[in-house]
């Protein structure tokens, strides 16, 4: 019932897009930070 509204209305699609965008950005930032922390550790020990 709510699913049909979520995918068939503009505001529902906008909500889905926003949630997806936030999840992608969160995952990207997490990977970015993790990689940079690993790089910093390598440089500080060397």
Secondary-structure topology with pairs:
Elements: H1 2-8, H2 10-45
Helix pairs in contact: 1-2
Provide a descriptive summary of the structure in words.
With 46 residues, this protein is mainly alpha-helical. It is built from two helices and no strands. Helix 1 (2-8) packs across helix 2. The longest helix has 36 residues, at 10-45. The model has no long low-confidence stretch (mean pLDDT 88).
Defining key terms:
0% strand; mainly alpha; 46 residues; 93% helix
Average pLDDT taken over every residue: 88
Low-confidence stretches: none
Q: How many helices?
A: 2
Q: Helix proportion of residues, in percent?
A: over 70%
Radius of gyration: 18 Å
End-to-end CA span: 59 Å
Please give the number of β-strands.
Answer: 0
Helix/strand-derived category reads: mainly alpha
Q: What's the helix-strand series?
A: HH
Binned strand content = under 5%
The shape is: rod-shaped
Major β-sheet annotation: none
Give a brief rundown of this model.
With 46 residues, the chain is mainly alpha-helical.
